[in-house]
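hey
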């Protein structure tokens, strides 16, 4: 016998609970459309997502602060680079509909995030909090690049990817390695994703990634383009999860090349950095040409 009553939700207190499944699906579909999900993905999510999960997302969208306009979010960040301000921007970008995102991009919102990264990277010493801010900045990129409008808005903005990849400068962040790996993981995921974006959405995604990596080589004064990444792949102190992200990026760079001579050239570049030796020591799978 149980002396506890099962907690129930009073429909009069929560209008969503009294709605039919069809009504919930309609509102859920409206939210997904505002968030720029493609039609096939919308239908899949309607079928797979449980009713309570749909209600939570509908409520989250409805409860998004009305005062969080793009211009206010950007002004807040520029008035002071705090964790609260950058998190507020990330949350708004994650829940942004098309009109909000377009306004953010038109107001040079990408530039405000780039400035935040730049101000931290140029500090004489990077603290644990600074690394957390860099991770939040990378998450803002990720939130923006969740749809075709955001992808184009970010990559078309001059210097955006070059600024983002500076988070992978381990020499600047060597005293904060645990947080560095967390922030770097987000960056590596974004670089891999860029390589895989279909040509009809983004042309030359792989070239954009390779150019950014080359810029990092220039800034860190390394002699070879992939030197920093390969060195981290072979370091004992590098977490396995981070090594997996590096391997994933290497594989996608090699796989995305249509021409065998380009793959061979890239493979030679990687081997010049010591990739072939690392493969013999660690159990990594690297795409073979």
């Amino acid at each position: 016998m149980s002396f506890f009553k099962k907690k129930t939700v009073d429909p009069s207190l929560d209008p969503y609970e009294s709605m039919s499944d069809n009504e919930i699906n309609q509102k859920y579909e409206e939210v997904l459309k505002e968030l720029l999900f493609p039609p096939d993905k919308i239908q899949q999510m309607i079928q797979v997502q449980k009713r309570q999960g749909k209600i939570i997302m509908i409520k989250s969208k409805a409860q998004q602060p009305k005062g969080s306009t793009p211009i206010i979010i950007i002004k807040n960040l520029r008035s002071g680079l705090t964790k609260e301000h950058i998190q507020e921007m990330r949350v708004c970008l994650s829940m942004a509909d098309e009109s909000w995102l377009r306004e953010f991009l038109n107001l040079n919102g990408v530039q405000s995030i780039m400035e935040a990264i730049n101000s931290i990277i140029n500090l004489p010493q990077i603290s644990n909090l600074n690394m957390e801010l860099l991770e939040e900045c990378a998450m803002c990129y990720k939130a923006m690049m969740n749809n075709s409008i955001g992808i184009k808005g970010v990559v078309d903005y001059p210097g955006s990817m070059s600024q983002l990849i500076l988070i992978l400068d381990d020499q600047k962040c060597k005293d904060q390695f645990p947080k560095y790996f967390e922030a770097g993981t987000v960056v590596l995921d974004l670089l891999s994703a860029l390589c895989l974006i279909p040509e009809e959405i983004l042309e030359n995604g792989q070239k954009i990634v390779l150019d950014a990596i080359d810029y990092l080589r220039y800034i860190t004064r390394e002699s070879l383009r992939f030197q920093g990444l390969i060195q981290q792949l072979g370091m004992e102190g590098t977490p396995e999860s981070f090594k997996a992200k590096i391997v994933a990026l290497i594989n996608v760079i090699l796989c995305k090349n249509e021409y065998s001579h380009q793959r061979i050239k890239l493979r030679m570049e990687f081997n010049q950095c010591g990739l072939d030796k690392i493969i013999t020591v660690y159990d990594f799978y690297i795409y073979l040409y």
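The chain is about 65% helix and 0% strand. Residues 21-52 form one domain.
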